Amino acid sequence: MSEIHFTLYSRSYCHLCEDMLQALLALQAPDENNAGWFDVEVIDVDDHPDLVAKYDELVPVLSASRDGGALMQLCHYFLDVESVKKFLSEGG
Q: Nearest CA to 25 among 13, 9, 36, 10?
């Protein structure tokens, strides 16, 4: 099974960020193929000037990687459940 890692670029006091995190965690329950297991790292962009420059008005931004590979941006503002499910189901 692939190791799946999500990175949520967030900021303090951001209700959209909290909403995206909660929606993502709701997908954490494994399905019959155990395809729902993943880890999530939350990074506050305001602690990193380079990330503010890159993501500022797009926050929250969700990126994902598989088996330590390159991060791929999946969505911003709101969780794109279909994109996340597609990512989870690929290459299991």
A: 36
Q: What does the pLDDT look like over 41-64, one tens digit per residue?
A: 999 999 999 999 999 999 999 999
CA distances to 31, 45, 48, 57, 85 from 60, rounded to whole Å, are 26, 9, 15, 8, 18
Assigned CATH for 4-89: 3.40.30.10
In this prediction the pTM is 0.88
According to DSSP, the β-strands at 61-66 and 4-10 are antiparallel
Distance CA 60, CA 45 (A): 9
